[in-house]
Amino acid sequence: MSKGCVLVIEDNIDNMDLVHFLLEQVGYEILEARDGRTGLEIAYQRLPDIILLDMSIPEVDGWKVAQQLKNDPQTKSICIIALTAHILPGDRKKALDAGCDGFISKPLDIPNFAGQVDAYLEKFRASG
Ligand code: MN
Fold it and tell me: Is the pTM here over 0.70, yes or no?
């Protein structure tokens, strides 16, 4: 059984492949989108457990994606984790204000990345 379904919305192919590899290895089912519009479509169709959201993506940016999903009763219970190289304190606040439930900064901490995702998902499920 899969640990959960993760939608990765990321336009950088190298990052996408890395995230996919690291999470598949530990038993997640992975869905991929390369832009915000496709990400929203897949989120509504598949209702993943967690979304890893690059904030700088084409079509619809990550902040708008998070806002839209968190303002919709159908999708607001999806855990959204911002995945971004923006690491200034203001950027963190901006991501949380948009509705993100947490934050993982890039470049990824490869040995610990899957554990970070597990921890966010467990914490989110516990807060129910
Ligand atoms: Mn990007």
Answer: yes
What is the whole-number distance in angstroms between the Cα of residue 75 and the centre of ligand 1?
Answer: 23
Separation of CA 24 and ligand 1 centre (Å): 21
The Cα angle at residue 31 between residues 27 and 33, in degrees rounded to 5: 145
- CA 87 to ligand 1 centroid distance, Å: 14
Q: Give 21 Cα–ligand 1 centroid separation in angstroms.
A: 18
How does DSSP classify residue 120? H
82-122 tens-digit pLDDT: 998 866 778 788 888 999 999 998 899 999 999 999 999 99
Give the tokens for residue 88: 């200034």
